[in-house]
């Protein structure tokens, strides 16, 4: 066992940190205020850096790196802008990875390659108004009609929606089947007839990441856009989410690290009682707890990522990493606001945005309760 990053992983951290600090950070506050998704900056530039296909083999336009490198990239982006972090995470883990894992060779060349190369942005449509945590309650339908599938239904809260070009969407192909059975996965392209976008969500945090409803009204897609085997969609979704949870855990880690860094810097700067507040043990103890939780989250994430790259099972490990990292992000950002005092409650300092951004990591890709359910089920099997 060794804890050091490889030379490649260190190079990726340096490159992404440099890019994030110089190019992403300066506009993070204004994009948050204006709910502005800057596609060129938040996706196009990531493609130029080779990040949009980082975990996929070169034969599909990817970078051929491992999951730890991917986790590092999402962490470094999220350290300055959690919206950019989730854009990459949703694109890679949710939009692209199911096509890599379950797609035919033709689907990989047609859909995955342009996504990995940063030309087309991906998204994932699982959640519905009455099927959130209970993903097996999917009501959207897909009916075969000659050489096409016809989709009807609504997906809600979809990250990257509106901007994304390629959507992996789940629909019921067998109306008689119960619960998670009889669901299939499909690839739907923006512009497909009968596919439109509904309400844009106005959110507490990650406000420069677009979140829209997907509306399917007799939406016609080619028969060959079925992804994986018919009726196997729930497993496609679950395996996809195993990887996605590493991405969101890394987003949470980045937010927490950013809040810790800001707090240490502020505590050294801010004077009260004729001393920098960092000299008070009460403040140092808070910083010590924050740093310890951040490091523990990082190690859980790297372990899950390492198992994913080694081809080992990692469902429980990614649920643990996501659970711990997201709850750490919430605790650490709340403490960061406390250390900044009244200034931390204003938009002058980024910790206010970080605390708002942290909350979503306890909700999406499975709430903290669902992560506990996944871990608990594995323990008591
Ligand atoms: N890998 C492979 N198969 C799996 C699996 C996994 N990780 N987890 C479950 N399965 C299989 C089971 O083995 C079972 O198979 P059989 O039918 O062969 O027995 C089948 O799936 C059903 O399993 P469960 O009975 O455990 O299913 P359930 O209905 O009780 O649901 C759940 C389990 C974990 C709660 C699941 O519904 C879930 O993960 N819910 C949360 C949904 C979620 O995370 N949504 C995120 C949307 S994406 C998002 O939010 C985007 C973003 O962040 C940007
Ligand atoms: P519910 O399932 O209604 O849960 C409500 C509460 O009940 C929660 O506290 C939950 O933990 C608890 N609960 C539910 N069931 C149980 C149980 N069995 N045991 C204990 N507690 C339980 N979805 C996508 O498909 N694609 C996306 O790209 C996407 N992006 C998102 C982006 C944002 C900003 C948001 C807000 C959501 C996004 N989602 C996306 C949806 C997200 O995954 C769901 O919101 C999440 O899974 C929870 O579902 P829900 O909102 O319906 O809550």
UniProtKB/TrEMBL annotation:
Homotetramer. Residues 6-119 form the Acyl-CoA dehydrogenase/oxidase N-terminal domain. Its EC number is 1.3.8.10. Pfam families: Acyl-CoA_dh_1 (PF00441), Acyl-CoA_dh_M (PF02770), Acyl-CoA_dh_N (PF02771). One of its GO terms (molecular function) is acyl-CoA dehydrogenase activity. This is Cyclohex-1-ene-1-carbonyl-CoA dehydrogenase. It comes from Desulfoprunum benzoelyticum. InterPro entries: Acyl-CoA_DH_CS, Acyl-CoA_Oxase/DH_mid-dom, Acyl-CoA_Oxase/DH_mid-dom_sf, AcylCo_DH-like_C, AcylCo_DH/oxidase_C, AcylCoA_DH/ox_N, AcylCoA_DH/ox_N_sf, AcylCoA_DH/oxidase_NM_dom_sf. Gene3D superfamilies: Acyl-CoA dehydrogenase/oxidase, N-terminal domain, Butyryl-CoA Dehydrogenase, subunit A, domain 2, Butyryl-CoA Dehydrogenase, subunit A, domain 3. It is an enzyme of class 1 (oxidoreductase).
